[in-house]
Predict the 3D structure of the following.
Amino acid sequence: MRMQAYVPFVRDKSAVSALPPGGTVHQRPARKAEGALELFYVGGVGGEHYDIAPMLRAVEALDGVYLTLCCRQAEWDKVKTQFQQLRNVNVVHDSGEQLKQYYRNADAFLMWRGMTEYLQFAVAVKFQEALGWGLPVITNSHCEMGDLVKNESLGWTPDTEQDLVTLLKRLVANPKEVVEKSASVAARREQHSWRARAQTVLSIMDQHRSAQ
């Protein structure tokens, strides 16, 4: 767990374990092994921790890849001049129940941003939300979310922007890989639900009481 190094006043770092956010399990239509690759991102844009330029460049570099990008209107207004004439990106400003349509229609969740120290240990709530919808995740390598994705076969973790382009190109050409990865996520997503997080807390509390 990468956040161990940032936890103060704890001598035994091995006693620290991760408790990331959870998600709610939803049902969505099975992905057809044909057609364009539909991606979804919801989150912040702009600023040090939300550099979305690399993933937008990757999406724009290819045919057959489309991204629905959902963010706050005020945030987009600050950065939109950087992203003129987007061919493959549809920008929306929805929230809450309105997000369900985008999760249902997506083939994968894309959260590949310019890396910062904070992003190396952070786990986004929307990451877990995507897993709850059974969506495989494309995120950065060498970070906490990337570790989860790689270790549990929840998606893909390209190292560089060019690796991201190569991956997207491969997924367009091989849609069955997306179907297979979606099945892998569906088999593991209960482990990332809020119920599973609560069970983890109860287990730790029981262990603590037993040790007293």
User: Anything to note?
Assistant: Strands lie at 37-42, 65-70, 89-92, 108-111, 137-139, 155-156. The longest helix spans residues 194-211. The mean pLDDT is 87.
